[in-house]
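lol ok so funny story. i was supposed to be doing the assay writeup but got distracted and ended up predicting the structure for this chain instead. priorities right. anyway since i did it might as well share w the group, maybe its usefull for someone
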Amino acid sequence: MRENGRVRSDYGGSGGFSGFGGDLQELVDEVSALLGAPATLEDRDFRLIAFGVHDGDDGAMDPVRTRSILTRGSTTEVRAWFEQFGITRATGPVRIPAAPSAGVFRGRLCLPVRHGGVVHGYVWLLDEAEHTATQLDAAMAVAARIGDRLAVTAREGAGTGRALRDLLTARTRAARDNAEDALRTALGPDADEPHALVCIRPPSGGEDDLPGPRTIPSAAALCFVPGPRGDCVALLVRLRTVQLLATARSAAARVLGAVASEGAVAGVSDGRKSLAELPEAWREAGDAARAALAQPLHGPIAKWSGIGPYRLLTALPADVPPDPVIAPLLSPAHRELAHTAEAFLDNAGQAGRTATALAIHRQTLYYRLSRIEQLTGLDLADGESRLLLHMALKAARL
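and the output, tada:
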């Protein structure tokens, strides 16, 4: 928002995200005072954390800087441009020249924010003034204090994630109770708010590649969860009410874009009032994600309440073999017949709609249906036979 020719943040205090506390904003302002220029703090994934006031008439707001402030982040291309100058490995100030073709109209001074040898973020300033070595050393000392604060924040987030993972993977009542107590302590007052769980499948990278939960709107905890069907990302999201899942869907979209591999999906559970209900919510979220993988029409973000018959099918044990009646249809040689059978049943057995959906002539459809009956031994004029075939085909997708 612009006030009196200056730009300020609406994300907490005088420019910092409320989740990080005002101390980071004060440290960013300290860097600005030391170097005589507005400073911007971003995390290591180029997501905005805090920024100082900018004079609205000094031309400081080039496209990259404006986008960072208004959208809380930068594009992949901009990130690659800056990282080529070695900022991820640097331990001191890095000067980066202007690049109008990349939207960087003015040079930058980057102060890497590190802690324990790990980069946690960057302080950015316009590189338009001469600074003494003493000034730069002082600014880097402040950057180190910012790194200490971000490291603490990362550990706090990791602790909440560990408590969530322990609750979702606990196998005994005692382990569940202990994990629930740990999560309640980690969440603080948020523990009594309504929540939903989001399951991301399949994830990419490792736990260090996960975005911080404080960078995801309404996120309370984030972690990897191992399981019999492979690892998943679990995201605990605060809700306004148990019925309103819009914040969970938005958070799911944010994580999908940040950490998921190509073709990944998300499942969203129903809302819950109690932390004790989260294991059941996790089952719902995982089953919704399985349904989205099996049936792309449900994805890329599927709600448990919206997956229809898959609510029953995902409850089947994972090692149950396909029903014998559809075994012949599942062979590669009969893939087209299986697709025809599913389309026919999806369209309530209406030949005209099915032929149109498959872009085939009705006589071709009738021939295929006859072949399906011969292979399965089912009578497609019988309601229970249709139900069996339909459910068996859907179950095979899982």
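DSSP finds twelve helices and 13 strands in the chain. The first strand starts at residue 2 and ends at 3.
back to the writeup now i swear
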